[in-house]
Write a structure and sequence with these properties.
Length: 368
């Protein structure tokens, strides 16, 4: 029986236990010339693990999910909310400041998204600046002298989003708020409450290990696709491989995340993804690293391995793929790509064939 080794679990399995794996996760975009790993490279078990535990979750609950909804022609299903555990959106101006907002998909709107307010009760903070402090029904504080004083000097001491008036009045009374002089103004449009025409938002996104693993899986797939299965099966990659597949590591990862896209690679286009390899210097040593950059907006960089470099060095060109999300095509490129590794001193050192540091000063004198 013909068998093959999976590049993620490293198990030797019958060919029938394998299926196709898209190099670039399909939820991040589909392309006319999509790269696919088809020759018994990723087993069905690993493939469905990635789908169920990584991609299906992250497509609705991450900055990546929001970016994909804004940027792709096929956004997520109408009105499906973009999850809140990795992505918190808060109003940042006027009456909206501090108000929790929800983003959902709305293909008829600009950017494919629609912003709604979470149910909230706002207690006046600053009348002149239209600032309120927002609470849910459950988190409403007991009325104290400070709050009472602020409310007494305000024309609009309380605003309510998304709750019905009776339940809010009930809760306010139970928490010691005096509503005897209050007048309920009913369902106002935002224009009745503020003259502010624009909504500015603050988006806090959490980048956790699952997002890192998603990026790393795309990088692994790409390396396998473009440099071949034997290359990605090298044991140097096992630590990263286990991280992608099982979320476990045996040695610390060296990686960093940048807001913004990858820069200065020829062929980059607006809102593209870029996945590829680059050279970098960590400490005093040249390393091969890999990057995954989504929608020009966030870039994950991983140290792959230190590079054996001898006395006379030159660095090869390395490959990357640029995913054009407008024309929906992939373009492969090959350049001498060098990335700055943050916080290192950029003094370059060299390793000999046995991965031992070469003392350059000593070496140059002995050669003369
Ligand atoms: Zn597998």
């Amino acid at each position: 029986m013909e068998t093959s080794k999976c590049i993620y679990c490293l198990e030797e399995k019958p060919i029938s236990e394998f299926n196709r794996e898209h190099v670039i996760s399909r939820f991040m975009g589909t392309y006319e010339n999509a790269y696919v790993l088809g020759d018994a490279q990723v087993c069905k078990a690993c493939n469905s693990y990635f789908c169920d535990n990584m991609e299906n979750i992250l497509s609705f609950d991450s900055l990546e999910g929001l970016l994909r909804t804004e940027n792709l022609q096929k956004p997520m299903k109408h009105k499906r909310a973009i999850g809140m555990s990795r992505l918190k959106v808060t109003g940042n101006n006027d009456i909206f400041k501090g108000l929790t907002l929800y983003i959902s998909s709305s293909p008829n709107n600009p950017n494919n998204i629609q912003i709604e307010t979470a149910p909230a009760i706002g207690l006046i903070l600053d009348e002149n600046q239209h600032l309120y402090e927002y609470f849910s029904l459950e988190s409403l504080p007991i009325c104290d002298d400070t709050i009472r004083a602020r409310m007494a000097s305000s024309n609009k001491p309380i605003v309510v989003f998304g709750y019905d008036e009776p339940e809010v009045s009930e809760a306010l009374k139970n928490h010691g708020y005096d509503l005897s002089k209050a007048r309920y103004n009913g369902n106002l449009a935002l224009a009745d409450m503020t003259e502010e025409q624009s909504l500015s938002t603050e988006i806090n996104c959490k980048v956790d290990s699952l997002l890192q693993r998603l990026a790393l899986k795309n990088l692994f797939n790409y390396i396998c696709y473009t440099y071949g299965k034997d290359y990605i099966l090298q044991s140097n990659f096992d630590n990263l491989r286990n991280y992608v597949r099982y979320g476990t590591i045996t040695a610390p990862l060296q990686s960093f995340i940048n807001s913004g896209g990858i820069k200065k690679i020829p062929g980059l286009v607006n809102d593209c993804h870029a996945v590829g390899l680059a050279w970098t210097v960590i400490g005093e040593q040249i390393h091969l690293c890999g990057f995954v950059s989504w929608f020009d907006s966030i870039t994950y960089v991983f140290d792959l391995m230190p590079v054996k470099t001898e006395q006379l060095n030159f660095l090869n060109n390395v490959k990357c793929v640029i995913c054009d999300n407008h024309r929906r095509v992939l373009t492969e490129a090959e350049y001498l790509t060098v990335l700055d590794w943050p916080g290192t001193n950029k003094k370059i050192g060299f390793l000999d064939r046995n991965f031992q540091p070469i003392d350059l000063d000593e070496h140059s004198t002995t050669e003369q």
